[in-house]
Amino acid sequence: MFFTLSNSVPSVGAFSVLRSSPSPENYIPRQKFRLFPLETCATIRGLLTLGMASQLKSRAEIVKIGKMLHQRGYIAACDGNLSVRLNRNEILVTPTAMSKGGMKPADLVIVDMTGRKLKGRREVTSEIGMHLLIYRMRADVNGIVHAHPRTATGFAAAGMALDQPLACEVVIGLGQIPLAPYGTPGTPELARTLEPLVPQYDAILMANHGVVTYGSDLQSAYMKMETVEHFAQIALVTHILGRQQLLDGEELEKLVAARKKYLGVNSAASMPVHSSNGNGNSSCQLESGKSKTRSLRDRAILRQSEIVSPFEN
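RE: above sequence
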């Protein structure tokens, strides 16, 4: 029998309490007990590391695209919001009352699918309901961008959908950009106005408000925002010129068939291309190109006749 000085029991007087230890020949190494086998522990650590890396990447991407939106003039002051679906239960979203051009990764907030904040020092955007609605209705969507690009928002403020087949790239990538009725921002009313359109489209004008786009990832959602604004500028020029040359039914069918050839067009939405009244109810009839052109030209001539030169008395 061997004895060793105890390090865990205080000394008494000049003596220390002795405790026995097993002889070397009878010593049995202490066993390490684990909740999971070594292989499982390694897998869990890997998944946790992977999840954290993915979240950090998503945070950096939101910050980057927030700056791009601000630099392009798609948002001003504290306008707009962005989000990424982290997993089936968590959404990473921008905070309220903060410029999206000056965010840092730590400013972002994580919420659950009810909008309850899980992590983050700032408050959640007031328009989180719109994001949650889209994620619930579209399992293929993992990124959302809401902004107020000037030209497209001008159409929304004028009550005009971008639903005419004027540019082949837009027909392939988005079909149409319908107009949702006005809903008060930050209220459930806003989400309700979008609900009929979300399953069919990847980009929606919001009356007197702005634009929302969404896709398989945040980059895709942002690119669709650029496409909407670019197309709005093209459509505006046709209105100024008083002339529109619409793609006909046969050409539209070819463009819809061509979607399969483009890797970027991977939406689960049907993206109808025929003219619509802006509420998601597609029509099978396209307005005649000649009658549309004549109508636009007549309105342009009328507006021109009503303009008074600043040099006339």
